[in-house]
Fold this sequence. Notes:
The protein is mostly helical. The chain has a domain at 2-75 and 118-197. It has helices at residues 5-16, 23-40, 48-75, 79-101, 119-145, 148-169, 176-208, 225-238. InterPro entries: EmrE-like (IPR037185), Sugar_P_trans_dom (IPR004853), TPT_transporter (IPR050186). The chain crosses the membrane at residues 21-43, 49-68, 80-100, 120-142, 149-170, 176-194. Keywords: Membrane, Transmembrane, Transmembrane helix. It comes from Blattamonas nauphoetae. It is a multi-pass membrane protein.
Amino acid sequence: MKIAVTPCVCVIEMLFYKKRFPITVLLSIVTIIVGVGLCTGASLQTEPLGFIVGAAGAVSTALYQIWSKTTQKKLDCNEFQLLLYETPMAAVLVAVIAYFTENYNLSSPTSIWNQHYTPILITKIICTAIGSVGINITLFVGINRTSPLTYNVVSHLKTISIIVLGTILFQEQLTSKRLIGMVVAIGGIVLYSVSNKPQSGGQKQERNSPSPTKTRPKRPDEDDKDTVRIRRAAKSSRTPTRK
């Protein structure tokens, strides 16, 4: 259901934030979804409960990405400040959920307290934590510098890269369906980048344009030099000469 995040972002921004996308951008999104669906659809198995959970995850992910963008603008902060503010709350939320999902029974052999924490396992846990921090940083930085929709489009390259690396490193079978899906998805990404380029260029030009110089407002009792010279000349002409 990860591919559903991209259309969810489009629908939410169009309905609740009154944002309008060009027809070429919408066409590129449809092309990307079709291509990624062909790449990953071979191993897709849908059940009613799984569909509900996946749909809820797609909507919540889309809302999280959009809110991260709007919150940075609302609070006038950068991505690292927002990440620093959000991380403690996320840690508390995850700790509460872990209390109900993890096995803390000391008598159970599968309890987390009875695990044999070898150096390799500890290294994997640390690397996983570092990777999670990196993902959060790239999420906030990417969305802040671009947009939630652009971030989702770029993230589909990760799916294609995983398929390519799996084929090269682990000799996974690259079927014609996956190959066609990869070509279609890459074509959609190229179409999106071309369609979104004028908008990005306009924003960059507007951002880099020099700001107009601010002039100091003139006080009511302040006159320019020419006005003062004219007044002095008129005053001297009206003054009678003494004999």
